[in-house]
Amino acid sequence: MSISAALSNALSGLGAAGRRAEVVSSNIANAATPGYAPRVAELTSASIDGAGAGVRVARVRRDADALLVADRRLADAAAGAAATGAEALVRVERAAGAPDDASSLVGRLAAFEAALVSAAANPASEARLADVGDAAAAVAASFGATSDAIQAERARADAAIAADVETLNGALARVSELNGLIRRSAGGSRDVNTLIDQRQQAIDAVAAIVPIRSVERSDGRIALFTQGGLVLVDSAAREVGFTPATTMAPAMTLAGGALSGLSVDGRPAPPSALAGGRIGAALILRDETLPAMAATLDRVAADLLGRLEAADATLPPGAAGLLTDAGAALDPAATTGLAGRLTLNAAVDPAAGGALWRLRDGIGAPAPGLSGNAAGLLALADGLAAGAGIGDGAAGFVSSVARARIAAEDEAGFAAGRQAALQAIEAQGGVDTDAELAELLRIEQAYAANARVISAVDELLRQLTGLGR
Amino acid sequence: MTGARFGDLALALQTRRDLSALKTDAARLTGELASGRRADPARAASGDLGPLSSLARSLTLIEAHAGVVAEAAQTAAAMQSVLERVQGIGAALAPALLAAGSAGGVGFAAAAGTQARAALDDALGALNTRAGGRSVMAGAATDGAAVSDGATLLAAASAAAAGQTTAAGVVQAVNDWFDDPAGFAALGYLGAATGTAFPVAPGRTVTLDVTAADPAVSGVLKGLVSAALLAEGALPGDAVGQGELALAAGTALISADAGLAGLRGRVGTAEARIEAGATTIAAERTALGIRRAEMLAADDFDTATALQQVEQRLELLFTVTARLSRLNLSDFL
């Protein structure tokens, strides 16, 4: 029987070679597929009743480095988080403008001071008084635009959280579903590697949003935890809840209840539960970083209003100065959102029924005074420049935004660098077509050798049967 | 197999990343080279925009102050020229009055009076000069005339001097009317008591408070009005008295000259302060410009060198990428 054993050995070699060629072709076909880990056909010698019976492919292994993937996922989350902060702060900084730009917040304030100085040189000139009014209105508009930009970023962060939560829930459900498929298939002989690839992609989608740790169960399922220890997927997927706000205003806060926090399976979750990724970063932006910036801007606006009110001697107590809080005087106890409410006093705005001479003679002046009296205009200019000066306050705000932006950008650069390094290492472990082709050469050789054995056995059998002739 | 593998995507990923980094650098450097301005001044200043902000503010303000200085200089010069004209009018008329007074004839005095009447109108016209849209001798009331016209002045002075029968009495009555707060100050001078202030530099104002109501100016007007009363028929029929009046008016004009010179000196002092402001502004403007360049300007040489480096690295990367993409086993099998 040894000749037929030789034949079956050679046949098993041909089969194994075919199977290996299949694996190689699959690898080459998927060379550019994201999330695809190269397959390796593992050979083992087959035996029947302890006797050798050729070769067989024991299993097709998915050749991926789980630890590396876990690290790369954490880097994905960190990079996503850092990029979220940096992008938002860049936009806020752009709204406030570069200080050397005439249309920036600082530039507008300087132009306002310059307009006061120019008008003081010729207070009789209606054109110069109109310039002062226009410059003051431009300052108000600049504060408004910066305040709006901050609130727009808060709204954007809120919307981004909602979108991410939706993606997250979809990905978690998909992981859970694939978990079930893999568990059912693992017992049989079916190839679950494709399912694992798909699950890998779904987990990567989660990892970009929330930093996760995964634990592989013995039955092939994967459990996902956040770094805060919250279970996202185990026997079933959890449902993360978030209600996006329809509008955004400075007074709307998480603590005040106007903005939504996160919930898991309907129960409120602390913001720390999903911290570290894009959702966590967006929450920090919406509830901490941006409101702090808005508060700084409001303080500068309150300082400006206070200075203008103090510098106008004609104002009765409690009356609004040149710039107003939506028409009213400064209320030091209600400065939240003040920067967005600055308006030019209607008493000096001819378009609103006011008169330009009030810029010269004071808002509270009963009648036009001497046309050459610059005292009021000089008092306003001095009031703005007194002490540290309103320009310094605005510069402080712009600097705080710039510092936050630079820090966020540096962090984003660092996180992106780490992510890139890990992605590169992961990609190195991906499909190498040259290596696959080299493997294909070996398969060809093995196939040729086995085919040679079959032809030799055939020759032997032929000779055996030829004896009878 | 893991150790022997180098995934195809790794190289593509690396190339793409290097390429985008180099292109970002090239775009930033090209922008800096084209604009001559640093791409990110905030980063260059480590996020502290205070110095840059205060610099930008100073530059904006210095331009405004430069405009103010020019305007103040123009106003002071106009003031100076008004005073010069008034001084000239007084100085030109005084000899004629003195001559008429010494000649002692009725006709001479009347002729000198007519001359004085015209000179008064000239002087008042000069005091009502407007420069750059403002009435320069009217103090803070820059939108109106500084003094009323000659007829009004003479009518009031005539009324004040009515009943006087001696030259000394007429002169005294005219002087009293000028010095009376209800006299010239109320009826003749139409401007404001306060002057105009010019913020010539941050925290520094120059006040031009010389007005037509200044005693030195009214000193000249006193002489002119006294003499012009001759043309209005003061001291009728008293040829000697009229001669004395002409003489007294001429003397008053001569003595007023010194006061006017002093007043011009005051305006000159203000002009000097304005000029000092202009010099400060010019110097500061240059200094600020230099500091601004230090803070914002990108060094063209550095930028060009860096750009050249980036260009070379890009070319190398393209070459290597092209070579590597030709290197694969399938081409050799």
Short description:
By secondary structure, chain A is mainly α. Helices cover 59% and strands 10% of the residues of chain A. Chain A has ten helices and ten strands.
Q: What is the number of strand segments of chain A?
A: 10
Q: How many structural domains of chain A?
A: 2
Rg of chain B from C-alpha positions? 39 Å
Structural class of chain A, by secondary structure, is mainly alpha
Backbone CA Rg of chain A: 37 Å
Strand content of chain A: 5-15%
- Estimate the global geometry of chain B from the Cα principal axes: rod-shaped
Shape of chain A: elongated
Strand order of the largest sheet of chain B: 1-2
Biggest interface goes to: A-B, 65 and 60 residues
State the CATH topology of chain B.
f41 fragment of flagellin, N-terminal domain
Helix percent band of chain A: 55-70%
State the helix count of chain A: 10
Order of helices and strands of chain B: HHHHEEHHHEEHHH
Q: Average pLDDT value of chain A?
A: 90
Distinct helical segment count of chain B: 10
